[in-house]
Amino acid sequence: MTIIQLEYLLAVANCGSFSAASELCFVTQPSLSMQIKNLEEELGVILLDRSKKPVIPTDAGETVIRNAREAIKAYNYIKESVAELKGEIAGHLKLGVIPTIAPYLLHRFIPGFLARYPKVELEVKEMKTADIFKALGHDSLDAAIIAGGMCPDEIAEQELFDDRFFAYVSPLNPLYERNNVRIEDIDMKELLLLSDGHCLRDQILELCHAHRAVHSTCSFESGSLDTLMRIVDNTGGMTIIPEMALPYVPDQRKNQIKTLAKGATSRKITIAVRRTYVKSSLINALKKSIMECVSAN
Questions:
Q1: Are the beta carbons of 158 and 271 closer than 8 angstroms?
Q2: CATH number at residue 8
Q3: How far apart are CA 77 and CA 71, in angstroms?
């Protein structure tokens, strides 16, 4: 039994197919299949039900996979510990970021992060929160930058900073003349929201105490706050935007930004990782770079 065999087994379990797993592991499918077959022969059990699409673990496979995760964690921790002792920050970091954070934060810290840690290979994906949790669970992401407070038990969070909410109001909307908007004065029929699946939508509905389905004027699968704001500019509607988006509102539109009355909330921006994740030096370096760029503004 080898670490490579266990890694290949986890890859197939995570991907649901041998072909996708072989691409993920940068190995030919016959080689990957042979390694898993050899592992099954050594253990004397079938680990994967190949008749199912996607491929799923057998009962024996579930047991082996559970222990394989712990074994690989321990194996990786050896390398991580030695790297930390040597003062090295290196490795491949697969980072997920939700769409309502990515356009406002990534460009601010990534150049400095890569310049400071040239031995780190950074791979970034923009993903919805639910997809991020799934990817973290399958080890196809190492970490993610999200709006915190919604993580399942197997995901741990490290807080970065608070991101306040603001109203962005059309000049045609009655609330435009106010400097401070009360939550109870917002007409939900005029509130433009992101589509289902975006955590910012859920947070805004919670903020507005709207626990029922809301039929807003427009809803966009793109997850683009900029698109929502452009629609607001040309209608009588409004939307809620996070503080990190404010610097990117054109100067001629700044007067459409309204503070929310006392008692309104913010979202906490966090770094999420699996509780069994071991690349602590990489996560600490990432956190340091983000906090420095945020503090500088």
A1: yes
A2: 1.10.10.10
A3: 10
- Judge if 98 and 214 occupy the same domain: no
Q: pLDDT tens digits, residue range 229-262? A: 998 998 888 999 999 999 999 999 999 999 988 6
Q: Global pTM?
A: 0.78
Residue at a domain's end among 65, 84, 103: 84
Within 8 A by CB and 6+ apart from 260, the residues are 164, 165, 166, 167, 180, 181, 182, 183, 240
Query: 289: domain range?
Result: 91-161+268-295
Contact 237, 188 (CB under 8 A): no
Q: What is the dihedral of CA 57, 62, 65, 67, to 10 degrees?
A: -170
Report which DSSP code applies to 38.
H
| Phi, psi (deg, nearest 5) at residue 222 | -65, -25
Q: Determine the residue type at 110.
A: I
pLDDT attached to residue 73 = 78
User: Which of helix, strand or coil describes residue 274?
Assistant: strand
CATH code of the domain covering residue 207: 3.40.190.10
- Residue pair 144/248 in contact (Cβ under 8 Å)? The answer is no
The bridge status of strand 56-57 relative to strand 48-49 is: antiparallel
3-state SS assignment for residue 28: coil
H or E segment to which residue 10 belongs: helix 3-15
- Indicate if 168 and 258 belong to the same structural domain: yes
Residue 255: the pLDDT is 95
Among 270, 253, 236, smallest CA distance to 144 is for: 270
Residues 178 and 230 in one domain: yes
Last residue of a domain, one of 55, 84, 113: 84
Q: Which residues, at least 6 apart from 17, have a Cβ–Cβ distance to it below 8 Å?
A: 53, 54, 55
Total domains, the chain? 3
Instruction: For 179-210, write each residue's pLDDT tens digit.
Output: 889 888 888 888 888 877 777 877 887 777 65
